[in-house]
Specification:
It holds the Pfam family RRM_1. This is RRM domain-containing protein. By secondary structure, this protein is an alpha+beta fold. It is built from four helices and three strands, in the order ααβαββα. A hairpin with a 4-residue loop joins strand 2 and strand 3. The chain is globular and about 35 Å long.
Length: 93
């Protein structure tokens, strides 16, 4: 909690830094992906919930396959929240 307090209580944070921190909330972490999942499959699965700006699947470079998790970035925070609630606990992508 101490680190969080320091982040928001420092009075001289530049505006650009605050805007960057705000935009993070439109990116969601996705776990439980199948090893065969590609960024295209991930984007397609989440596109019904809004405008997907970016889908990123973390790869195991030695095996050239998904590590089982990734990130999806939406254009709006509300889209990210809706996708997170709808896809939580769903079958593997």
């Amino acid at each position: 909690m101490e680190g969080f307090r320091q982040l928001w209580c420092q009075p001289h944070r530049p505006l650009s830094r605050l805007l960057f921190l705000r935009s993070i909330s439109s990116k969601i972490f996705v776990k439980g992906l199948a090893f065969s999942t590609t960024k295209e499959k991930l984007a397609e699965a989440f596109s019904e919930y809004g405008n997907v700006l970016n889908a990123y699947v973390v790869l195991n470079k030695a095996k050239n396959r998904s590590k089982g998790f990734g990130y999806v970035t939406f254009a709006k925070e509300e889209e990210a929240r809706n996708a997170q609630m709808a896809m939580n606990g769903q079958a593997r992508i």
